[in-house]
Amino acid sequence: MEFSGIADEAGGPIETQIKAHAELGWGLIELRNVGGACITDLPDKEFDRVLGLCTAAGMRISCFASQIGNWSRPITGNFETDKAELARAIPRMKKAGTRFIRIMSWTRGDAAQDDWKAEALRRVKVLAKTAEDGGVVLAHENCIGWASEGPAETLEMLETVDSPALALIYDTANPLAHGKDTWQFVQGLKGHAAYVHVKDWKIEPDGAGRGVYPGEGQSMLREQLAEIFRTGYDGVVSIEPHVTAVIHEHKEAGDPEAAYHIYVEYGRRLEKLVEEVRANR
To answer: Are the CB atoms for 10 and 20 separated by under 8 Å?
Structure first.
């Protein structure tokens, strides 16, 4: 098992992101935004600079956290945007030796429920064929989109698309954060995760939610990790703290120095928690 993390939560510049992972002693890094732009949107020259710095630091890129099908893209939007993003990403992933690219399955917008489902499945199938031809894997996160409505929908997507180029990212806090049943999710998708995102979540008395350090929230994080490891999972565990920066809410860290130290502390606390959970299996 190896640790990674969506490094833009440590800071915007790639140098800061690399520094945080080096301080943690991690050889993997998950890239989403660099300098405010998604890794799939960077100009070629800037991408090559980012990759060169990661390589020079001895770090491998565990996943591209793309925008494909995410919270900003309704199912009624232009699918060509997603196809173009994947087309840009594949040669970069091949150059970096990166297997996974994170996707979601589009917000519903004003589409009818049946249309949302049908179009989401169609789109994922198209993208999976492109990914398969390109030698990469779409990793669908249980966050936003039709296939994240519940474990049954997620499994139906896997069965319908039926592609070796489609896998699952399981995020430990997203069920609670999106009003779903956490235990139902982890039980329903247990054994299906190819990659794990860790964050912990707390619902305040006024109903607002926020990210907290691992083990301090209401996401049953310890219990979820125990279930995931019990299935024999030994892949990447990647942090997405959401303690100071929540990218999808356009919430940047107000204090960059604090964000950096929180990210590193988050990683250290997770390492300790994982060690305890694995020791008690």
So the answer is: yes
